[in-house]
Amino acid sequence: MKASASAAVLAMQGLSLEFPTYRGAVQALSDISIQVASGEIVALVGESGSGKSVAAMAAIRLLPPKLFKISRGSIVVVGRNVLELPPRAIAQLRGKQVSMVFQEPMSALNPTIRIGQQIIGVLRRHEAMNRADATLRASRLLSEMQVSDPARVMRSYAFELSGGMRQRVLIAMAFACNPQLLIADEPTTALDVTVQAQVLGLIRERARAHGTAVLFISHDLAVVSQLCTRIYVMYAGQIVERGEAQEVLTRPMHPYTQGLLRSLPETALPGQPLRSISGTVPVLMNPPRGCRFRSRCHIAQERCVEPPPFSNGDQSVGRGAACWFPGRAADDFGNDQLDRDNRCNADARIHGFARIGGEVRTDSEARSLVHIDAVDVRFPLAKNWRGRPAMTVHALNGIDLHILRGETLAIVGESGCGKSTLAQLVMSLLPPTTGRVCFDGIDLGTLTADELRSIRHRFQMVFQDPQASLDPRMSAWRVISEPLSVTLRLPPRDLRKRAGELAELVGIRDELLDRYPHEFSGGQRQRLAIARALALEPQLLVLDEPTSALDVSIQAQILNLLMELQSRLSLTYLFISHNVAVVRHVANRVAVMYLGQIVELGPCGLTIDNPRHPYTRQLIGAVPRLHQPLTIPPQTVVEARSNLRLPTGCFFRSRCAWANEGCSSTQELRVLTDGRRVRCHRAEIIEGVEVS
Amino acid sequence: MPRTRKSAALAPALQRPFVSMWARWGVDWRYVWYRLSASPLTVVGFAIVMTVFAAMILAPVVAPYDPNRLSLAVRLAAPGWHHLFGTDEVGRDLFSRVIWGSRSSVVAGLITVAISMGLGTCVGAASGLSSGWVDTVVMRIMDVLLAFPSFILAMALAAALGPSLMNAIVPIAIVRTPFYVRLARGQALTLRDRAYVRAAESFGSSSWHVVWRHILPNSMAPIIVQATLDIGLAILTVSALSFIGLGAQQPTAEWGAMVANGRAYFLDQWWYPTFPGLAILVTALGFNLVGDGLRELLDPRLRGR
Fold first, then answer.
1. pLDDT tens figures, A380-403
2. What stretches of A594-643 show up as alpha helix (H) in DSSP?
3. What average pLDDT does the segment A127-149 reach?
4. Does B12 touch chain A (CB under 8 A)?
5. pLDDT tens, B82-140?
6. Cα–Cα distance between A202 and A74 in angstroms, integer?
7. pTM of the complete model
8. Rounded to the nearest 5 degrees, what angle is found at the Cα of A581, between the Cα atoms of A226 and A556?
């Protein structure tokens, strides 16, 4: 689809925008040109700090007026110059002709007003209609968004709805007045994959049906490849590559785009180091002249000191990259594609190692480092007036699991399935309600507080968000050596020395250790957190979503580091993640959790490529993949059940497409012929159906 | 491997010895300067507070007369070159007494706040971390303290203990403690669930270590703001207690007591109660301005603007 300048709903031309701060002006956007025509879904991709959200907010002047300065360029939305419109006209434009969907649906909805009133409010503000008509229209909008019971949803408050439902309400509001332009800023980042696939489907259907132009902002290349027709790749406040989506993602011209694609775990062989982009995004206070990517670029030459022009000239559409050597590294890139095709062969090797997952029990007990034995975890939620729990959260239900020495066991599942509870259980930060957790044959439940403290050094944890897990008021070396200072009471000089050695191990230079956590980048902070976890020389590392707060290029660096450390220090990993591609890359075995139960447990490649349990199939099927069409799971299967009251029989039965009368009996985790365990009595029948 | 460019890595390293002491508390002087230049009132507040502290410390040098020297020849003299603020009914120099008075009034305010802040922070942090029945009991006691009209409670306590400056400090400190308990408890409740606190637990640190190393340093910002705002209030309350005769006694130079004595002369010798009163007003105002400024400085939401 080619966009001509006249049909463009959104046209940004040579936009430069800066934020004056006390340290100097931050060049947030430099010479950005973007066009979106009606009916088109255009992606704006880039890592955090690349300026993609700023560009979108600037388009409808949502930035606080005193805080930014537009030095050059123009923005035309629906034929009107946004930069010269009076505030009142902008307000008219917003909601009616242009609307926006944000990442966090909870904070975008007013918690004190019922959903219905909020949608009706939007409708009546922009269109002359009475309350009854607006109510009717609102409920029709919601049913178009595949909300099964619009009347109930309209009576609800935001906090009574699930995340996916809230996002659907927001999209309904965004489409309420049939806007000509929808700006979606990471609308599915906070959602689980099955819900994400549905929400993407909704956006695509609506855009197609009404000819809405969509500017879709995302960091997720797989999502973008499934949804969008054209792509703009942003780096450090500039557009570095643009073109048709499939074209850009299969034959990237700019080294940055190539680097991004290579950083994705799905483009590499499992267990092999990922080719990450070294270094970090430059500070935009005084951006380097010339190509801003050159300090991280492996093909950079002297010429890159000059600002590179777009390879196809100074338009805002068409295929092109802002690079002196467009497509230079592409030959190299083709090999990666080959690698990907070779993956199946490699899998066979890896499975050979991972087959232990299903072997005879006595053997696995001998190799077992952690044994979780019939564990239930329940939390009392509310108490009644006599202090008895009135409601109980069934966080974990009958978990039986061995973590074997030297392996990486991954736990995957959607939010609320109990993966983080399991992490805390293994870390003994949480006692099991029933059952026991043994570490190296020692039942942790029988230890006294002092004994437990003395064994804690053998299992350590890396948390999700490095920003939150490092105390901002401690210098880096104190952070790293904190476990040592707690357990050994060494003098500060020894601590500092040991911190230096640990930092070296995770690739941080010793002389940086006097800095404070906020002075490090996200990836470096996660390295510090890993160094801290290694300080006590543990045998087991519990990694709770260690890369989900990081950009893909940084994620690749951290995954490489983790794999390297594992082989050097012979560590055992419990790897908790919702990202199937990451798990596929690093894990030997994978356990899939649903509603506090393990529904499938087996070798990683086998389980992810050919899942047996209906839930696993659905989860894996909804994972967005590069170069594959969007598969939208049916509506009935999306909402996970509440774990306040456990269902009888198979927990998944109400969402399962294969359910029959046999599912009303309790399901056991049974061993299949290929060695994996599945909690489904029909696993062999489901086997025949392949998931693409 | 992340490679930091050499120039970028060196620049902060060179400033390090100077920066590190403040960096521990996240102080960025350029940021401080930027915010201060945007709010002249805070600068005025700082200037007042600095002047008051200078007067307090340098009182023997700055004050032209002995504050307690009687000189019946110049009773109730009007302000002039010899006596900047005039004299009182027994000929003591009011300027010198106001300067010396800062040593009782301001010091009393500081001690009051130090006691209530120290006590309140410890009790609050402990209460927030323990949760359960200890927390409930502590917070209900604080509710009871808050339910009393604070000045009347302070008056009653001071009266029961007997009139003296020390006995005015203790009740005011007690009355102000619940505010810190609440603040510190709230901080402890949120910090308790931070990942770095859970990390500390995961490598087996004692709760003492957690409180000392993580909870207290990270909860101090709002408490310090509250304390600065409170100093003004405490000075005011100490002066008020002295005014009604429950605080400092003659011949101690104390602003509240001076206003009380001067009240009788207000119509004819306006300067007698006015200058000590102004001292109270300006000092309290100064601390409040500094407190407001600190609140803005420490508010992370305003960062980067």
1. 877 777 777 778 888 899 999 999
2. 604-609, 614-622
3. 87
4. yes
5. 888 888 888 889 999 999 999 988 999 999 999 999 999 999 999 998 878 889 999 99
6. 31
7. 0.83
8. 105
Residue B194 near residue A517, CB atoms below 8 Å: no
Spatial strand order in the sheet of A434-439: A392-404, A368-380, A434-439, A442-443
Whole-angstrom CA distances from A337 to A230, A253, A261, A330, A333 are 21, 15, 11, 11, 7
Task: Please report which confidence band the pLDDT of residue A358 belongs to, taking 50, 70 and 90 as the band edges.
Answer: very low
Does the CB of B69 have a partner CB in chain A at under 8 Å?
no
Distance between CA atoms of residues A282 and A279, nearest Å: 9
Strands A24-37 and A80-81: unpaired
Q: How confident is the model at residue A63 (pLDDT cuts 50, 70, 90)?
A: confident
Q: First and final CA of chain A: distance in angstroms?
A: 28
Q: Are A439 and A369 in contact (CB under 8 A)?
A: yes
The encoded tokens of residue A634 equal: 């049916």
Give B222 to chain A, closest Cα distance, Å.
Answer: 15
A406 pLDDT above the threshold of 60: yes
Give A535's contacts in chain B (Cβ within 8 Å): 203
Chain B: nearest CA to A47, how far in angstroms? 16
Count of other CB atoms within 10 angstroms of residue B99 = 26
How many percent of chain A have pLDDT more than 70? 90
Distance in angstroms (rounded) separating the CA atoms of residues A113 and A102: 19
Q: How far is B217 from chain A (nearest CA, A)?
A: 7
Contact A317, A14 (CB under 8 A): no
Cβ contact B4–A512 (<8 Å):
yes
Is B196–A471 a contact, with Cβ atoms under 8 angstroms apart? yes
Q: Please answer yes or no on whether A279 and B195 come within 8 Å at the CB atom.
A: no
Beta strands in A495-571 (DSSP E): 540-544
Cα atoms found within 13 Å of the Cα of residue A558, Cβ hemisphere only? 27
Distances (CA, A) of B234 to A215, A370, B52: 57, 58, 15
The encoded tokens of residue A440 equal 């190296």
Predicted ipTM?
0.76
Residue of chain A minimizing CA distance to B31: A22
Q: Distance of alpha carbon A53 from its chain centroid, rounded?
A: 17
Measuring CA to CA, which residue among A198, A262, A204 is closest to residue A228?
Answer: A204
Q: Which CB contacts under 8 angstroms, 24+ apart, belong to A30-33?
A: A30/A237, A30/A238, A30/A287, A31/A72, A31/A73, A31/A238, A32/A73, A32/A234, A32/A237, A32/A238, A32/A239, A33/A239, A33/A314, A33/A315, A33/A316
Residues 6+ apart with CB under 8 A from B202: A427, A429, A456, A460, A461
Token pair for A673: 């012929």
